Amino acid sequence: MKQFYFIIALLGLISCQDKKEIIQQDEIVESKFNLETDYFDFKQKMTDLDTLKVYINHSVCTYQGHEKLLITKENDSICINSRFKEVTFSENPEWKTMYTRKVALNDTIWNFDQFLKRQNKSNYTKKSAKMSIRYKNQRIVFCYDCGLGKSNMFMGDYYKEMRKIFPENKNNIYGVDVP
User: Fold this and answer.
1) Residue 94: which of 167, 177, 171, 176 has the closest Cα?
2) Would you say residue 22 has pLDDT above 90?
3) Tell me: the pLDDT tens digits for 56-102?
């Protein structure tokens, strides 16, 4: 009978040590993503803990439209959620979900990271820019005060890239096809 109690006590000690090891292995994982240095390689550098918020100002001349992209990573995919608000033709503009897409990490069709590399990042921090990306308390902007010509070239490049994941182009948010 003493051996039975000894074996139970020994098993109890062993199981407590295993729990300590499990607790140490399950420590909180923190992301090391840095927007300033990793934005052009976000597909590879993001973790499942990271969320990028991209704000795009579609406005030109008298037209006003705005888009918000929420980019997250889920295992081996990037998830993109687009919301759009058209101000010019609406009395009560509201944000509307346009689409949600999942793109594989090894996808070669949607090259948003390459689009970002082609753009000139600005150190300007005010709100009025064609595009800004936020991650936690970090923010970078693109095409601030770039003039009408550069602004249209920027938006044309953006539209072309985004139509790769949203060819339906609902409500022509990525431009109108010219015959």
Assistant:
1) 171
2) no
3) 998 888 888 999 999 999 988 999 999 999 988 878 889 999 999 99
Distance CA 160, CA 115 (A): 10
Tokens of 101: 């897409």
The structural domains of the chain, with segments of one domain joined by +, span: 35-172
* Inter-residue contact 23 to 99 (CB < 8 Å): no
- E strand map for 43-179: 51-57, 65-74, 77-86, 96-104, 121-122, 131-135, 138-142
Q: Which of 10-24, 40-54, 83-97, 164-178 has the lowest mean pLDDT?
A: 10-24
The stretch 108-128 carries a mean pLDDT of 77
Tally Cβ neighbours within 10 Å of residue 121: 17
Quote the tokens at residue 8: 């139970």
Question: Maximum CA pair distance of the chain?
Answer: 92
Task: Determine the Cα–Cα distance for residues 28 and 103; give it in Å rounded to an integer.
Answer: 27
User: The pTM is what?
Assistant: 0.77
| Cα–Cα dist 76/10, whole Å | 43
Query: Would strands 96-104 and 77-86 be described as parallel, antiparallel, or unpaired?
Result: antiparallel
